[in-house]
Design a protein that fits this description.
The protein has 3 helices and 25 strands. By secondary structure, the protein is mainly β. The longest helix has 10 residues.
């Protein structure tokens, strides 16, 4: 995929087009005709990528942190937004889902889900309280809600808490099981978060988050369905090296995951169109793996995910959205500022012993993996 725009350099917070080679403060700036070439996992050229290069790195970092601001850097992560967006699309994975005979619960998108749920508040010793009714929840207000705690006799006379903070007492609840089935394939969206890599020095990590309205564990041995819950966020992190080449990917599964490589191991990463890693979504749990088959996910190897061929193939680069950073969302994706659960609160007995698997998870920006 050939880039069509020229490189920009930041001056006083603005991006000015550069159409010639130059040296500015020790940094060589090249236009699209002489830009460093991005190569795929096999070392083959896939087009020129406009970047700012210095002697240490070819990554699109803004070196002067005082200039990490709009309009060039809306989310203020010190990566040029337009080049960040291009990398997000270039390396977005192809997600291969299980056939419907193995898993009826499909992905959705955030706006589709919010239109169909209630927002409620979980009181420990009292009834849940309604915050927003069905059809009233949106990206514009999900992070702007508040609720008073009960002081005694279920009376709201204690301090006020807010949904923009990490608070698991706020939760989203579908009114019926039809929402669990997810949206039509044409409505699926992936959500990307790009940041300086914590794995490869001088590189870039691109997180791809996928949302499913329901996680339905297919293995009856998993503590009698303990892993079933509403609101299911799944993750694959693609790591690019300092030359913007594909290095590896972390496939998340069950609060953990494993890093895979294009050349290492029997189950190495395979690609579509040279740059899009193939990700298999496990039946029911939707955990991510690089190949079909059976994947144990506990230390003893008794609990297994089952991954199948023959289902829909979701080319996420056609619908991926760059969400930006939690403090500075991009593209209207303010849902990342919501700090509550994305599904109903589950078993109190299990939560009392630290098991959260029957309750809806927190959103991407409130999970530990967001900054890892």
């Amino acid at each position: 995929m050939q880039m069509s725009h020229s490189i920009g350099v930041i001056v006083a917070g603005w991006v000015l087009p550069i159409v010639f080679s130059s040296v500015l403060a020790g940094t060589t700036v090249r236009d699209h005709r002489s830009a460093p070439v991005v190569r795929d996992h096999r070392g083959q050229s896939v087009g020129a990528q406009p970047v700012v290069r210095d002697q240490r790195s070819s990554v699109i970092f803004i070196r002067n942190h005082n200039r990490c601001r709009p309009p060039a850097d809306i989310d203020r992560d010190c990566l040029l937004d337009r080049d960040e967006d291009e990398l997000v699309r270039r390396f977005a994975p192809e997600v291969r889902l299980a056939p419907v005979s193995k898993d009826r619960n499909r992905p959705a998108n955030v706006d589709w889900y919010l239109r169909r749920v209630h927002m409620r508040f979980d009181h420990k010793s009292c009834k849940d309280h309604q915050i927003l009714g069905r059809g009233k929840v949106s990206q514009a207000n999900i992070h702007r809600q508040s609720h008073k705690l009960n002081k005694s006799l279920c009376r709201h006379k204690d301090k006020r808490v807010y949904s923009r903070s990490a608070d698991k007492r706020f939760f989203l609840q579908p009114p019926d099981n039809r929402v669990h089935l997810g949206a039509k394939a044409s409505q699926w969206k992936a959500y990307a978060h790009a940041k300086p890599s914590t794995f490869f020095k001088g590189g870039v990590d691109i997180q791809y988050w996928f949302f499913y309205p329901f996680n339905n564990s297919p293995d009856p041995r998993v503590a009698m369905g303990t892993f079933n819950h509403e609101g299911d966020w799944e993750l694959v992190t693609v790591t690019l090296d300092a030359g913007l080449q594909f290095h590896s990917a972390l496939y998340a599964a069950h609060n953990g995951g494993k890093r895979f490589y294009p050349y290492k191991g029997k189950r190495r990463i395979r690609f579509v169109d040279m740059t899009h890693a193939i990700v298999y979504s496990a039946a029911g749990s939707h955990a991510s793996y690089p190949a079909a088959g059976t994947w144990p996910f506990d230390l003893k190897g008794t609990l297994k995910d089952h991954v199948y061929e023959g289902g829909p193939r979701w080319q996420t680069w056609k619908s991926v959205v760059n969400v930006g950073e939690r403090s500075y969302p991009m593209n209207g994706q303010t849902f990342i500022q919501y700090g509550g659960r994305w599904g109903e609160v589950g078993s109190r007995a299990l939560r009392a012993v630290g098991i959260e698997d029957t309750s809806g998870p927190m959103g991407p920006a409130f999970q530990k993996s967001w900054s890892r």
